[in-house]
Amino acid sequence: MKLKTLFMVFFICFSSYAAAAKYGKTDPNKLYTKAVKFIDQERYFEAKKVLKAYTKSKPEDAYGWTLYAFSERKLGALEKAEKLYEKALVLDVENKAALEYQGELFVQTNRLELAKRNLEKLYILCPNSCEEAEQLNAFITKTAKK
Length: 146
What we know:
Blueprint: H1 2-22, H2 28-40, H3 44-57, H4 62-74, H5 78-91, H6 96-108, H7 112-125, H8 131-145
């Protein structure tokens, strides 16, 4: 009986270690790289799981929160995504990616004026244009035409 219990404890501990290793929980850089790969593959559920671990290990990384929010938004968790974008923007008010994606969320939730405010902020941050401003403008324009 004791051997069986010892085996069970070992199995549980090893399984936890193996699960942690699966997403490289010991190395934030590997987590981030893995998350970006999942997002590129449109595997948002997996990205979300990895980014949850990443943001625990790097809570001050605004871009980690931005990608976490992006994944949640792509999965339809709009309220959660909004809170995560806000967190990213508290950490870095000039986070162009967060402003763009949050703007897209505002459009999705029929808050066009808020999206336009984000676009104005992007125009201030990149007066000679930038990808984020162009993409948000396109997103707003496409939606407004519908």
